[in-house]
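Per-residue structure
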Amino acid sequence: MTAALAAFAFAPGLAVGSFLNVVASRLPSGQSIVTPRSACMSCHTPIRSRDNIPLVSYLLLRGRCHTCKTGIGLRYPAVEFGTAALAAASVFVWGPTWRSLAAALFCAALVAVSATDIEERVVPNLVVLPASVAVLALQLLWHPSVVWAASGLGAALFLFVVALAYPRGMGMGDVKLALLLGIGVGRAVPVALLAGMIFALVPSIVLFVRHGAAARKMAIPFAPFLALGGLVALFAGDRLVDLYLRLL
C-alpha cells in the first residue's frame, strides 16, 4: 500500500519540480514566478502546453527547444525528477502522514536552493524562510515538540558563528538554510551539517590539487552540499545518531 502511494506521489512531484524550475530561473533576478508564461530562454518563444509536460516533454524534444532547437539545460529534468523521486521516497518512508508532507516540502526547498546557488550563487529568502515556517507547522502537526525549532535555531547559530569567522567561505544564505535543515531533520541536524561539510571537501580538494594556493580564492556553492547533507540526515540521520549514542 505504501509503495503504491509513493508511486502515486511521483506525478505531483514532477509538477512541483516543474514549478521549482520557474522559481530557480526567475526568483534570483526578481522576476514574477506567476507571469508571463514560460518561454525558451534563447528565442523567447512561449512554450506550448504539450511541450511543457514535466520530464516527458524534455525526452520527446530530445532536450532541445521546439522552435529554435537550442539545447535545454540538464537542470530542468534533474530538478523535476529529483523533486518527484524525493517526494515518492518521503511517502514510502512515512506513509500518508504530516511527516511525509513535511519531508516532501523540505526536499523540494532543498532542490530549489541547490539550483539557484549552483547557477546564481543565491539562496533565496523567499524559498528558505516560507519553507521553514511551513515545514515547522507540519512537523508540529505530526509530533508537537520544541526540538524542531530548537534544532533549527541551533544550526543557524552555529553556521552564523562560522560565517563571522570565515566570511569568504560562507554567506548568510547558508545560515538561513541551516535553520531549514534543523527544522526539517530535528535532532539529526548535526549529521546534516557534518555530512554537508564532508561533501564540500571533495571539490575543495580537487580545486586545491589543480590550482594550488590560488584555489583559496575560488568560491564554490555551499548550499547544494548542505542540502545533500540534509537528505542524508532526513532519511538516515536518526539511525546514525542512535548508533553514535550506543557507541559512547
Q: What stands out?
A: DSSP finds nine helices and no strands in the chain.
